[in-house]
Amino acid sequence: MIDIFLEFVNKFLGRPPLLLGTLTMIGYFLLNQPKKALPGFIKAYVGFRILQVGSGGLVATFRPIIDSVRERFGVSALVIDPYFGQTSATEGLAVFESVQYVGYVMIIAFLFNILLVAFRNITKIRVLFITGHIMYQQSAVLLWATYWVILGGTGQPVTPLIWIISGLLIGTYWSVASNLTVEATQHVTNGAGFSLGHQQMFGAWFAYKLGKMVGGKSKDVNEGEGSGIGAILNDNIVANTILMTFFVGIIMVILGADSFTYDRNQFYFVTYIFETTALFAVYIAVLQMGVRMFVAELTASFHGISDKLLKGSVPAVDCAVTFGFSPNAPSFGFMFGFFGQMIAIITLIVLGSPIVILAGFISLFFDNGTIAVYANASGGRRAAAILPFLSGLIQVFGSAAVLTVLIDSPNVVGWMGMWDWATLWAGTVLLTDVAGIIVPILLIPLLLIIPQLQYRRNPTNYFTTMRTDQ
How wide is the angle at C-alpha 365 spanned by C-alphas 209 and 21, nearest 5°? Predict the structure, then answer.
């Protein structure tokens, strides 16, 4: 039975387009609108696949540039990127014949999230975390890190206590952190009816709250200057193309033509630079198209699930969905997050740190881009610049700190590098290394206090998911 369920996890729960499409279809049936069920499934599925094309295109275009920086300067170090963190986890656990327990952790976490939502009147949890690939990734990394600091070097496989506690803890995190961003996400998306379910949920909430303080009355990052040269920034496609051509183009010029593989018969190096960096705007436009399609269906149909099965609940989805509501903010996040990471990396080198960190594109763009979206919503362009810059510092220093206790794990190549994993989870792993399993055990009830505090601030319409903290 466990093998059958694990297969279901891998082939269905772990495939977000299928999961979201099915939820959309179920929602329409619960709303007694069966004629919309199949079209809703298809539009939600196709819309999310389009979003994935946009996201995947961004990664495929810009990750080689980051890799070229590493190769060009001959640096060999650990990478702060979710897929490097996942590789460290699965390869490290494989040495101790424990990879199968990642599925157990994910199952426990997902069922616990459902349980907390089902008893929402007590727990005050409103959000169902459904970002499948993130669920697997986080389950793997937390299990690996917890296992290594408790049993590392003993040669024992993962024990039941470790995978059970890991599952309950990551399920608590999905529930609490995504629940925390409900009101902020309604502001960001103009009441689209979903929440954030990714790697920087606490980071996005802090960015939204701090944005009000650091941004002042600065203009929205998506607004142009109104006249003259600045007026061209009114068009987000033009703004993204100009910004990325200038910023990434400088990096490519420094690296030199020999660092890139391209057809010299078709491109001058200067035109290759432009056609590469302009893809950023292309994929953002693709991403926006997918967002509009799948969000429209999911928002309409999820009322059925929210009203009939899990009353007052909302889905937590991929951070890239928010980019369509603030098209220029991700560029700001990428650029200023890059500056922050570079300063932090140089600082580590100058100080002679035993851990040398290399930037990863996903943390640079998707993490800092999301933080910029939320910061901009409350504090405008100034907040969208300052807070991703600070995030870049945090991503590097926090990741370097946690890697000091994971560096001897077999096959380690990096850490997640995202905001929550450079703060909450880095601290959890470091404390667990000192005090043992009691740390993750105590963290579960401590995190569950947060939604109780949220509810006390707004008991009247807390379960309506309406924006209340303006």
Answer: 85
Phi, psi torsion values for 33, nearest 5 degrees: -125, 65
pLDDT in tens, 134-170: 887 899 899 999 999 999 878 888 999 999 999 999 9
- DSSP H helical ranges for 309-367: 329-350, 361-362
Most confident of 93-97, 119-123, 443-447, 456-460: 443-447
Q: What angle (nearest 5°) sits at the alpha carbon of residue 95, between those of residues 77 and 165?
A: 95
β-bridge mates for residue 281, sequence order: none
A 10 A CB-CB count for 51 gives: 28
Amino acid at the residue 19: L
The percent of residues in the chain predicted with pLDDT above 70, rounded, is: 88
Query: The sheet that has 78-80: what strands, in order across it?
Result: 357-359, 78-80, 414-415
Tell me, what DSSP letter sits at residue 79?
Answer: E
- Do the beta carbons of residue 355 and residue 78 sit within 8 Å? yes
Cα–Cα distance list, 181 to 138, 177, 383 (Å)? 19, 7, 18
pTM: 0.79
CB atoms under 10 Å from CB of 277, counted, come to 24
Q: Is 193 left (phi over 0), alpha (psi -120 to 50) or beta?
A: left
Return the minimum-mean-pLDDT range out of 60-64, 282-286, 396-400, 408-412: 60-64
Q: Give the angle 431-432-436 at the CA atoms, nearest 5°.
A: 130
Write out the E strands in 370-421. 414-415
Tell me the two tokens of residue 78. 């650990």
Return the percent helix, strand and coil in the chain, to nearest 5.
75, 5, 20
